[in-house]
Amino acid sequence: MAAQDVLGQTARLASSSALLQVLFRVITFGLNAFTLRYLSRELIGVVNVRLTLLYSTVVFLAREAFRRACLSGSAKRNWTKTINLLWLTVPLGVFWSLILGLVWLHLLEVPDTSVVPHYRAGVVAFGLSAIIELLGEPFWVLAQAHLFVRLKVIAESLSVVSKCILTVTLVILYPQWGLYIFSLAQLLYVSVLVMCYVIYFVVFLGSPEATKKSFPVARVKALLPNFVEDETFVNWKEARLTWSFFKQSFLKQILTEGERYVMTFLNVLNFGDQGVYDIVNNLGSLVARFIFLPIEESFYVFFAKVLERGKTVKDQKQDDVAMAANVLELLLKLVLLIGLTITVFGYAYSQLALDIYGGSMLSSGTGPDLLRCYSLYVLFLAVNGVTECFTFALMCKEEVDRYNFVMLALSFIFLCISYFLTHLYGSVGFILANCFNMGIRIAHSIHYIYDYFKESPHRPLTGLLPSPVLLLVYVISAVITAFSEVLFCCDKGWMARLIHISTGALCFAATLVTMFCTETKLIHFVRSQ
């Protein structure tokens, strides 16, 4: 497949994924606002922090390394061996579910049953849901490698909508069920997700469309583990790369979910405070999840397909290098501007957003400061996602192994800083520690990108330098909206709030106009791709 075709399909995958994430976040946003009025903060804290951490840890440790290894390189490969390798995620998921399930049940603090009933059932259900989701891993990787955009959109949309409908129904009818509600909803979510992929490939394989596309898998039976005589069960090159990524993914999970591990294992916050932190965290991460994550996932595939892992820039096709450098530069500029916009306007509108969303429970206390800090953290997330996406797509096995040592040291430092800052600043300390963590990771990735392109005429890191005029408009907007918040928000009535919102809208419009006038190359890229 030509690099230009890969770019077009990748861009469509990223944009579709972004739209899909918008739908997910809007639904989750509304669901949380709804459940806040029916359920306790403690119950929400246990579900969104404790149990979700169990599920995400099992799934991440079982599949992340396999995904990265099996999506590297061309889609033309021995798919029988790749599928065999992917099925190893299931027994690995069972292992992690059992081990971590015992830890969650017997070593961690158990919530008060009068406030959070059915905790044990919740642990079992969330561990089981992780295993069920891993059953669909070969189907997901095959679809992702061949850029099946529509399948991903439909599958994840149906699963999220099903989960939300069941949750809302049970919360209204049986609020006393407690964790049973979220357990059943989680099991429904993963079941619908896996069934969508399975049903699609059952129908697709053997069809005229699959034959026309010369799809590498001809029968549904080929998607199951297969032993081939006189051949190894898996591709050992992929297996070794998977092991390297596994060591890395273990550390990355600690860094990604570090604050939840500190909350869960060190009990620095009670379940109620964990619930407030998680609500604010979800609200603050809306843009990060529905824009930055799809870009990172989709363009990881693009860079891995266009450039060959482990080769220097001189050994690559120069046309592909030029395209990759141009795309990287524009992606950096895109996410930087989105991050700056969130940081500037998020500071002045955090308290208003929380007051509208959850009332005084969120807008009083540390809630507004949490969201303001998270607005800054979004900027770090934006840049880190793209720089790591490129770095991980190009690193050879030895470089991945060396980076693992860096991640190990960073993990230890991050956990220590999280614990220290949390004792000083409460839950805000978690976000400050995350900013430090992301800053170090960005510095490492920028160093790698600089070294990679230094022997070529391309300088993609210039994407991190926005127009001076645009920066000036950002500064002016920040000052105006901050004064507006002091004067009009948030206890002076709805008329004052509307004036505050209108002020922000005018500043935002001025920022967009300036962006369109000064960043013409980026605007053309977004429109064309």
From TrEMBL:
InterPro entries: RFT1. It comes from the Eukaryota. It holds the Pfam family Rft-1. The keyword Endoplasmic reticulum applies. It is found in: Endoplasmic reticulum membrane. It is a multi-pass membrane protein. Keywords: Endoplasmic reticulum, Membrane, Transmembrane, Transmembrane helix. The keyword ATP-binding does not apply. Pathway: Protein modification; protein glycosylation. GO terms for cellular component: endoplasmic reticulum membrane. The chain crosses the membrane at residues 12-31, 43-62, 83-107, 119-141, 153-174, 180-205, 330-354, 374-396, 403-422, 428-449, 469-488, 494-517. GO terms for biological process: dolichol-linked oligosaccharide biosynthetic process; glycolipid translocation. Intramembrane glycolipid transporter that operates in the biosynthetic pathway of dolichol-linked oligosaccharides, the glycan precursors employed in protein asparagine (N)-glycosylation. The sequential addition of sugars to dolichol pyrophosphate produces dolichol-linked oligosaccharides containing fourteen sugars, including two GlcNAcs, nine mannoses and three glucoses. Once assembled, the oligosaccharide is transferred from the lipid to nascent proteins by oligosaccharyltransferases. PANTHER family: ENDOPLASMIC RETICULUM MULTISPAN TRANSMEMBRANE PROTEIN-RELATED (PTHR13117), PROTEIN RFT1 HOMOLOG (PTHR13117:SF5). Belongs to the RFT1 family. This is Protein RFT1 homolog. The gene is Rft1.
